[in-house]
From TrEMBL:
GO CC term, one of those recorded: proton-transporting ATP synthase complex
PANTHER family named in the record: ATP SYNTHASE DELTA CHAIN
SUPFAM superfamilies xref list: N-terminal domain of the delta subunit of the F1F0-ATP synthase
Originating gene: atpH
Protein name: ATP synthase subunit delta
Role summary: F(1)F(0) ATP synthase produces ATP from ADP in the presence of a proton or sodium gradient. F-type ATPases consist of two structural domains, F(1) containing the extramembraneous catalytic core and F(0) containing the membrane proton channel, linked together by a central stalk and a peripheral stalk. During catalysis, ATP synthesis in the catalytic domain of F(1) is coupled via a rotary mechanism of the central stalk subunits to proton translocation. This protein is part of the stalk that links CF(0) to CF(1). It either transmits conformational changes from CF(0) to CF(1) or is implicated in proton conduction.
Pfam families: OSCP (PF00213)
Domain of life: Bacteria
Molecular function terms, GO-annotated: proton-transporting ATP synthase activity, rotational mechanism
């Protein structure tokens, strides 16, 4: 999640409005789609960040890409364009997702492994996260072969690194110090 104060303020405002209008879940789906689309499309991200591209062109592209977005999401995009803050769209969407999860009492557990998690391991991770935090969690698996084996579990601000590469690095430091 972005640490941008402005992004968090916009996200809080949209969440408050969406809760009042009972459309928070639909807006959350929009925000998830926005973050996924922007992270997967380097061209879209560059266009949003570019001061050279006109706001009207950015709006036309966003309207075409997110044509099925809710009224709240479209209003957010219009507001960001009006305030010349459209570059914050990805951060606002990410902040909204985080705030929505907090409101629902759920969280995302990011598990980095060298190979994809099996369903059995996913259920064990979910059980462990619930035991540790007392909250429901959604598991997001990131595959990174550079960790060699083991896993890295990140829930909120807490990280547990049980990767082989981390253990090898610790051994290397021990041998270099002695």
């Amino acid at each position: 999640m972005s640490g941008s104060r402005a992004a968090i303020r916009y996200a809080k405002a949209v969440l408050s409005l969406a809760v009042d209008q009972k459309s928070a879940e639909a807006v959350n789906s929009d925000m998830t789609l926005i973050t996924n689309t922007i992270s997967q499309s380097e061209d879209l991200n560059k266009m949003l960040q570019s001061p050279v591209v006109r706001s009207s062109e950015k709006k036309a592209v966003l309207s075409a890409v997110f044509s099925k977005a809710t009224a709240n999401t479209n209003n957010l995009i219009d507001t960001l364009i009006t305030n010349k803050r459209l570059a914050l769209l990805n951060d606002v969407a990410s902040s909204y997702n985080h705030l929505y999860d907090q409101m629902r009492g759920s969280q995302v557990a990011i598990v980095t492994t060298a190979v994809p998690l099996t369903d059995d391991l996913k259920s064990k991770v979910l059980a462990k996260v619930k035991e540790l935090t007392g909250k429901e969690a959604e598991v997001k698996n990131i595959i990174d072969e550079s960790i060699l084996g083991g896993f890295i579990l990140r829930v909120g601000d807490t990280q547990y690194n049980a990767s082989i590469s981390n253990k090898l690095e610790k051994l290397k430091r021990e041998f270099t110090l002695n």
